[in-house]
Design goal:
By secondary structure, the chain is of the alpha/beta class. Helices cover 44% and strands 15% of the residues. The chain has two domains: 256 residues, Glycogen Phosphorylase B (Rossmann fold); 161 residues, Glycogen Phosphorylase B (Rossmann fold). The chain has a seven-stranded parallel beta sheet with strand order 3-2-1-4-5-6-7, sandwiched between helices.
């Protein structure tokens, strides 16, 4: 079906009734909460949406139902969207507390333990979904989040067209040891266990295999996964986050070659490679005198990184541990480039947020970042080995410092790319795919 830009297109077509599973969902939080919220609330413009979501996070410290209720009281009902909260399994809270206590990763803890609890919630969601389908004329089911391929849930078992994604990670790529050998043995073991477990899951998990075979459409956020899937008719590239476009955003054009501002934003953990970033800065030598750097984030590597920066005399760094989310946009507005050294990521919300603020991005040429960033809005560095990455980032930074006309062109291009990757465009694409899949399903009956 060809893309219809005319808004009357949807008005001429009956609204479909869609059941969406979005495990963590909130108008006030980032990450997967934000992915679900921004897509679902925009889909209500085109179709009638019933969304099942977790009442709280696994620890019970964030009450998503309360947050959604508070938002609706302040802003009114979301047209076309009905929210159905589902309690976490009663043992999830206790398991999650143990997981947080024994893991260095304070976001979800050990993935295997987190996904065990998530699976318990999905089983409850499946039972409730069967009741919803028996009472409502559901036409399509969409497993939206969590975005991980490890856990497709159980809704694919229902006898309705099934959509999965955005998701990714099917094609487990083995990371060069050079990226992690500087870290503790824990990280090296973790990285290889991750690679092996992902590979085994994809090859031998019957549930993942059945979900793939049942899916009418799979949205993939990783370029590697897109290349890997043979059935191209049932897949479509779609990064797992989007931009909120500010049409009134003005680009700050700089012609002063004596000033260059770099922003680095993320958790200070090995997969984000903040140590690589500091080595890049150190290798820039005297150029650092004309650079100011802001590092926003916290994590178990922070003390080690600060110690390294002091030892190398990197006095041009401002360390910002925690900041309100809106404040990050202010830092983006006064920066010249976002340097994103992460080697393990889908698309990263900070990349899309940077584009929306007219901030070009230098990042690795992998996964969703390879899809989100193109030559109009940034520079991508091949992920080969640590030293090649380091030199690639150094060359890119020097190039933009020396070529302000290119930097200014990338700033304008970032805004244009943000429009292409906006939540609005993403929701419209999904809404159109619902219609196409419904028609194809009817034709095959």
């Amino acid at each position: 079906m060809q893309r219809k830009e005319n808004s009357e297109y949807f008005e001429k077509i009956n609204r479909l009734k869609i059941l969406i599973s979005s495990h963590e969902l909130s108008p006030y939080q980032g990450s997967e909460c934000s992915v679900g919220w921004n897509i679902i609330t925009r889909l209500g413009k085109y179709h009638d949406i019933i969304v099942i979501y977790a009442k709280t996070n696994q620890l019970g410290t964030s009450d998503y139902e309360e947050q959604i209720t508070e938002y609706i009281i302040k802003n009114g009902e979301i047209p076309g969207v009905k929210f159905i909260p589902i309690q976490q399994h009663k043992i999830a809270k206790y398991i999650s507390k143990i997981n947080k206590a024994i893991s260095r990763d304070k976001s979800i803890g050990f993935p295997g333990i987190y996904y065990f609890c998530y699976n318990l919630w999905q089983k409850k969601a499946y039972k409730i979904s069967k009741r919803i389908i028996s009472n409502d004329r559901i036409e399509i089911i969409h497993h939206l989040t969590s975005v991980t391929f490890r856990e497709p849930g159980y809704l694919w078992k229902l006898n309705l067209p099934f959509i999965w994604g955005p998701t990714g990670g099917f094609k487990a790529s083995k990371l060069s040891l050079s990226y992690i050998k500087r870290d503790k043995i824990y990280s090296i073991i973790y990285e290889y266990l991750r690679y092996i477990s992902n590979r085994l899951l994809y090859l031998y998990s019957k549930r993942i295999s059945k979900a793939i075979s049942k899916a009418s459409l799979i949205y993939l956020f990783s370029r590697e996964d897109i290349f890997y899937f043979k059935d191209k008719k049932r897949i479509k590239p779609m990064i797992d986050t989007g931009c909120i476009v500010n049409d009134r955003k003005t680009i700050k054009i700089r012609n002063n070659s004596n000033l260059f501002s770099i922003l680095w934003c993320g958790r200070l953990v090995s997969s984000k490679a903040p140590d690589l970033f500091l080595e890049i800065l150190n290798s820039l030598g005297e150029i650092n005198q004309s650079i100011n750097v802001k590092i926003i984030g916290d994590g178990y590597l922070k003390n080690k990184l600060i110690k390294y920066a002091k030892m190398k005399g990197l006095n041009n760094i401002e360390w910002i541990s925690s900041v309100e989310h809106n404040k990050i946009f202010e830092y983006m507005q006064i920066s010249d480039v976002l340097v994103h050294t992460s080697y393990r990521e889908a698309a990263s919300a900070v990349i899309l947020e940077s584009l929306s603020m007219g901030l070009p991005v230098i990042c690795h040429d992998i996964a969703g970042m390879a899809i989100a960033i193109n030559e109009s809005c940034g520079i991508k560095i091949p992920l080969k080995n640590y030293n090649k990455s380091k030199q690639g980032f150094i060359n890119a930074i020097k190039y933009l410092i020396e070529n302000r006309d290119v930097l200014n062109r990338l700033k304008i291009g970032a805004i244009e790319r943000a429009r292409e990757l906006s939540w609005e465009e993403k929701a419209k694409t999904i809404a159109e795919d619902y219609i196409r899949i419904k028609y194809e399903s009817n034709a095959n009956k």
